[in-house]
Amino acid sequence: MERTGPIRPVLAALTATLLALPGVAALSSAARAADADLAKNGGFEAGLDGWACSSGTTVNSPVHSGSSALQATPAGSDYAQCAQTVTVRPDAQYTLSGYVRGAYVYLGTSGTGTTDVSTWTQSAPDWQRLTTTFRTGPSTTKVTIYTHGWYGTGAYGADDVSLTGPGVEVGQPPATPAGLKAGTITSSSVTLSWTAVTGATGYALYRDGVKVQTASGTSATVSGLAPSTAYGFQVAAVNEAGESARSGPLNVTTTAGSSPDLPAHALVGYLHASFANGAGYTRLADVPDSWDVIDLAFGEPTSVTSGDIRFTRCPVTECPNVESDADFKAAIRAKQAAGKKVLISIGGQNGQVQLTTTAARDAFVSSVSSIIDTYGLDGLDIDFEGHSLLLNADDTDFRNPKTPVIVNLISALKTLKAKYGARFVLTMAPETFFVQMGYQYYGTGKWGGQDPRCGAYLPVIHALRDDLTLLHVQDYNSGPIMGLDHQYHSMGGADFHIAMTDMLLTGFPVAGDPENVFPPLRPDQVAIGMPASVNAGNGYISPTEVTKTLDCLTKRTNCGSYPTHGTWPTLRGLMTWSVNWDRYSGGEFRKTFDGYFG
In this structure, how many other beta carbons lie within 10 angstroms of the beta carbon of residue 253? Predict the structure, then answer.
């Protein structure tokens, strides 16, 4: 019998009564919001947009749906994690799911405020759905979702990652910032400030229409600029709803500056001045004119933590042809008269220096000054290796370092630069592990367990970028390093040098964090470090490969598989270990340089 007629009016009346009760309408709204997918670009259709990946790329096959999917390969100590931070509601239930394939693939969350969860599969030869649920804590507003593989396994794939649960009302983007003005202006940087905007969670800075960095407060310094160059700056306010309109442009021209008088393209070489090895001792007066910067190797500390640096010339018993102190000083003056720069290099393989205290810092400044003054040198090269530089576990921002050995070194170098003036030559020769490795890892990492030396030179380089004459990273004795193309690059050819140098000239997110970008250096601040011969160190490349490297970076021709992000005809030049080894091998390295740059 038909009984629905009488019941429908009763149900309608009951529903109306319930919706009139306090809180019921809100529950209904929340239920509708629970259907929202909060993950951004979960299908990877927009490449890696929204994801911070230690390695990986998007591929068109295999995919679970759509046209793209993530593919990433764990390597070494990297398990190829991709993560994104999502805004959520406190005390709410969420479901994380996604499709994966490969061996040992994980899908999980962190920062939930309750119990972080993950799920995984040991083997998925084809697409397999993983899913897990969690509840946010009473004050949790953001969680991180991630997927990764595992050490020593092959490539994995991920696609259609979703986080479903109550959405968050994001409101409207903030108002446009006002009051943009310039503070300190140097030859390579501009300090900007603006008025705070209500409701803004951060700010985006634009240079000539291109976003160059973000800021959490109302001021920032934009570095990596060229001397005597006009730039247009704008700022926009940012919140969860998006980005405001940009402010009107502020036009600023950098100063001309006063820098050491180096040739447009310079050749830098280390001279074994305090020891002899298989290459033999070379008198300073016998160093060919090709060398524009000569680094005297090495000044070393009396103890690791003393900061007291001593430069002891090679004894006659070890170097029978060593010149006298008087002849050595005369050779320095003759090189300087010919336009060359002679520096003292501190550190080296055996000279570990840790400025753990302010007393060590002050001893470093005093003792290095004494060496410079005694020999009338043009400046200082920092060649800290081994365990000289490392980051404490809570030191996670290269822009604001806290570790004493980092902070004290920065302070010491700034003091020396201020003491000797603008023509003081300051160079650095870090290993790739301390610089480019910072693209993947920084210090011990968010979850600990990483080498605290990873990327440890970055805060020093960044703090001194306006004082730094040259950075010549040692592109030798290096393991494989991931480039900006998310591929690992190994020594032995032009490709390695191109990828490593491109990172310095393009800038890169530190530890894959797009909000923590190491800005590019000026090309005139960069030289490429290479071994002079097969005897000098691992990573030697032939003159043909040296030429390919320079062609690609300065002309964007003769490039290999690595896609560079620019062309830099003002790249400063090359550095080598060493003058002695080049002489031993018949001058091949300097002849290649001279032949290329004329």
Answer: 14
Q: For 343-373, what is each residue's pLDDT tens digit?
A: 999 998 888 999 999 999 999 999 999 999 9
Measured between alpha carbons, how far is 391 from 458 in angstroms, rounded to an integer? Answer: 11
- The span from the first CA to the last CA of the chain, in angstroms, equals 103
Q: Are strands 309-310 and 341-347 parallel, antiparallel or unpaired?
A: unpaired
**Contact (CB, 8 A) for 474 and 577:** yes
Active site residue 385: yes
Q: What is the pLDDT of residues 461-516, one digit of tens each?
A: 999 998 999 999 999 999 999 999 989 999 999 999 999 999 999 999 999 888 88
Domain ranges of the chain: 34-164, 179-251, 264-595
Backbone angle region of 592, left / alpha / beta, with phi > 0 → left and psi within -120 to 50 → alpha: alpha
Which of these CATH numbers, 2.60.120.260, 2.30.30.100, 1.10.1060.10, 3.90.960.10, describes 34-164?
2.60.120.260
577: phi then psi, degrees, rounded to nearest 5: -100, 105
Q: Break the chain down into helix, strand, coil percent, rounded to 5.
A: 25, 30, 50
Among candidate residues 300, 323, 385, 545, the one labeled active-site is 385
Cα 330 to chain centroid, rounded: 42
Consecutive H or E run containing 373: helix 358-375
Beta bridge partners of 157: 71, 101
Q: Which two tokens stand for residue 487?
A: 């591929």
Confidence of residue 552 (pLDDT cuts 50, 70, 90): very high
Instruction: List all residues 6 or more positions away from 169 whose beta carbon is below 8 Å from its beta carbon.
Output: none
Q: Under DSSP, is residue 423 helix (H, G, I), strand (E, B) or coil? A: coil
- Note the pTM of the prediction, 2 decimals: 0.67
